[in-house]
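Revision sheet: structure tokens.
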Amino acid sequence: NRAMEVALGIADAETYLQGMLERGFTVDQVAPRLSFIFGTHMEVLAEAAKFRVLRRMYATRMVDLFGATEE
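Predicted:
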């Protein structure tokens, strides 16, 4: 399920980022360096849409929840 992949990926990133913030790092140091690994399927357009949604949601949540700059 593509929606579940995106939701779990973002939740994992937020948990990891929260741990790094507790250790003294800033969101702008950590967030650009996080990466995601997802499986892809034969439906190319749907998979491309999944990655576009993931990127936009990740950026929005980093700004809204953690105060990241929009760079």
